[in-house]
Amino acid sequence: MAKTDAERALRIYKTFVERTNEVIEYLSEAKSLEHAMRLQVPNVKHAPTGLTQALEEYLNDPDFEKNRQQYLEGRGRGKSFSTSAATASASASTSKAVEAKPPAQPCSSPSYP
Hints:
Layout: H1 3-32, H2 34-37, H3 50-60, H4 64-78, H5 81-100
């Protein structure tokens, strides 16, 4: 992953973790009112926060570009013909599906009283 992509992924994941915290807070308050509302509030597990630390370590590594190049070179050597053929077949079917998709119709926004 390029450094700019990794930085963007880190920002997105941090935002995701913050939003998850807010949802968990909201649902825990709703859980306390569950009996009064006669509704069942779902239990939500928190997203793993270890990924944030792993991405930060990945970005702050002084040999970031060197490690990235080594990974890309190693990945290129480890590919087999069948994997490449499967990837090519998957991309061909995806592009055909995109071509066959009808043009999108403009949507009108519903009017509410």
